[in-house]
UniProtKB/TrEMBL annotation:
Keywords (A to Z) from UniProt: DNA-binding, Transcription, Transcription regulation
SMART domains the record matches: HTH_ARAC (SM00342)
Residue ranges constituting the HTH araC/xylS-type domain according to the UniProt record: 174-271
Example GO molecular function: sequence-specific DNA binding
Entries under PROSITE patterns matching the protein: HTH_ARAC_FAMILY_2 (PS01124)
Entry-linked PANTHER family: HTH-TYPE TRANSCRIPTIONAL ACTIVATOR RHAS-RELATED, TRANSCRIPTIONAL REGULATORY PROTEIN
Protein name as catalogued: AraC family transcriptional regulator
The keyword Transcription regulation is annotated on this UniProt entry: yes
Keyword Transcription set for record: yes
Length: 279
């Protein structure tokens, strides 16, 4: 991906299973509200990234890390005119849990506590992981990943609190989410969804926002992109993935995919294919 000084690569390294990798420079890029199934460990090399997280704008400058737990809504944009340059690791919850169990005293589901940590040493470690993956140095990449995650968990780690569904609104939101997941390619209107669940549209909207941090239509777009990623991982063409998840056409997938993942689906798929061809 290139244009207007922006460049990004989103890839996987076969010898780091369960971890996505990103290296990018963005200037005018805006990430819409979305979530990740994996952790986000973004190491800012220069410039400033601003991301809305936990009800407030967070600022991460050079030498800082932007940290996001799985399934946590957030956005992203430049905080200065020149944008920001960074490298990011996206380790799965299973990878982080394994590291936490071996190297920390955290018990339960591990999580990051603060969304921004100033730690130039760990920023350097993240970039060294990416460089080792680029160079095909599996031992270094794996070792440095574990050192970086351990360091972050020790200085900024905690236990993810369990969210118990108790209220009628929370139950309705969970049922709405399940229905949207099931009917992703042809979703109902908010009114029809509310009627199916025996509630009102605005009551469902409020409950869904409270439960998942975004309204149903935003959540659906995010879920469609996640499913499209899995299809692309499996070798599907972008046009096939777009139709399968309910986008009108491939340009719609391209637009939403780029605003959530950071690269177009075609570039994303090419990197996945390169990994599969090298195995």
């Amino acid at each position: 991906m290139a244009g207007s000084g922006e460049v990004a690569r989103h890839w996987r390294y076969a010898d780091l299973p369960g971890v996505d990798l990103l290296r990018a420079r963005y200037v005018r890029k805006t990430f819409v509200r979305h979530t990740h199934e994996n952790f986000v460990i973004a190491a800012i090399a220069d410039g400033v990234e601003v991301f809305h997280h936990g009800g407030a704008d967070q600022h991460a400058g050079a030498g800082a890390l932007a940290l996001v737990n799985p399934d946590t809504p957030h956005t992203g944009r430049a905080g200065v005119p020149e944008g920001w340059r960074y490298g990011a690791l996206y380790p799965s919850p299973e990878v982080v849990a394994e590291i936490a169990a071996e190297t920390t005293s955290i018990r339960g589901t591990p999580a990051f506590v603060a969304p921004v940590v100033d730690d130039p040493r760990t920023v350097a470690l993240v970039h060294r992981v990416l460089r080792a993956a680029d160079e095909g140095d599996a031992l270094a990449a794996d070792t440095l990943l574990r050192v970086a995650v351990t360091r972050l968990l020790r200085v900024n780690g905690g236990t993810l609190p369990r969210r118990e569904v108790r209220t009628a609104g929370a139950v309705a939101a969970a049922r709405a989410r399940a229905l949207l997941e099931e009917r992703m390619a042809a979703p109902p209107t908010l009114d029809a969804l509310a009627r199916d669940l025996g509630t009102s549209p605005f009551a469902l909207l409020r409950a869904f926002r409270d439960a998942y941090g975004m309204p149903p239509h935003t959540w659906l777009t995010d879920a469609r992109v996640k499913r499209a990623r899995r299809l692309l991982d499996g070798g599907a063409a972008p046009a096939e993935a777009a139709t399968a998840v309910g986008f009108v056409d491939q340009p719609h997938l391209n637009r939403h995919f780029s605003r959530i993942v950071g690269v177009p689906p075609g570039a994303y798929r090419r990197e996945r294919k390169n990994v599969q061809d090298s195995i």
